[in-house]
Amino acid sequence: MPPMAEPRTRQFVTPEGVDLRLELAGVGERAAAFLLDLIILMLVLIAFTIAALFVLVGTGPAGGQAMAAIWLLGFFLLRNFYFTAFELGTRGATIGKRVLKMRVVARNGGRLSGHAVVARNAMRELEFFLPLSFFAYESSQGLADFATAGAGLLWSGVFVLFPFFNRDHMRVGDLIAGTWVARQPRRTLRAAVVERQAAPLYSFTDAQLGAYGEFELQKLEEVLRRGDELAMIVVARTIRTRIGWTGAQGDELPFLQAYYAALCTRLERNMLFGQRRRDKHAQG
């Protein structure tokens, strides 16, 4: 019998103690997402180049040299800020990863930090863009001999093949930054029309609402404002566990919105009677 494929599900225990059991993205999925991002980068770069040509038309050789310098600088800034800016966002993913339902997460279960995102994307320069730029430059100068081409291919090959030789399919950048690229956790979706016409799906007892106070209400509001899907999944599961929720296990956003509204109403009503609860540890 052929050996069974290694499962790609990993424990992902958040600081709240919730295990999301994330499924890691495969090498093919990651390559496809990277290819989509490269296509987007090239389209933006082409548009930028055309705009710059219109500005520099008729300037002669000096303009051509300036154009080359601007193009190289623009390409450097674009490729670095594109990946970093999108992965620092609430979704932790570039456009290519979003299309393929993936995101970058911290392997320790915590929030994805800025220095981790910068580190993993800085390594992409060494893994891919630096040897590619060097090879392109040598080719333009007519100096690309067999040894130069071989060295560039060997350099890129070591990094390109690295994800195939570790069980978590990590790039060198992931290894250094302490990150995974995981498939987006599944969320249950419903028809919005049916939900609007139906009776409220979520209702809570006074005991369930009494599990939290004002501090937790503020934190829940921050999560809802950010719209981070992973954070909403974690918070929804944490609340369900704490209050012993046995009702519908639906989409996290409606559940959190319903609980936020109900908790807010309860806290405001109690304050009218002089009963204020600052957090879940206070009596109330």
Automatic annotation (TrEMBL):
Keyword Transmembrane helix: yes
Main location (coarse class): membrane
Transmembrane segments: 31-56, 62-83, 104-123, 143-165
Record key words, sorted: Membrane, Transmembrane, Transmembrane helix
Topology in the lipid bilayer: Multi-pass membrane protein
Protein name in UniProt: RDD domain-containing protein
Subcellular location: Membrane
Signal peptide (UniProt feature, chain positions): none
Positions of the RDD domain: 24-178
Any one GO CC term of the record: membrane
InterPro entries reported for this sequence: RDD
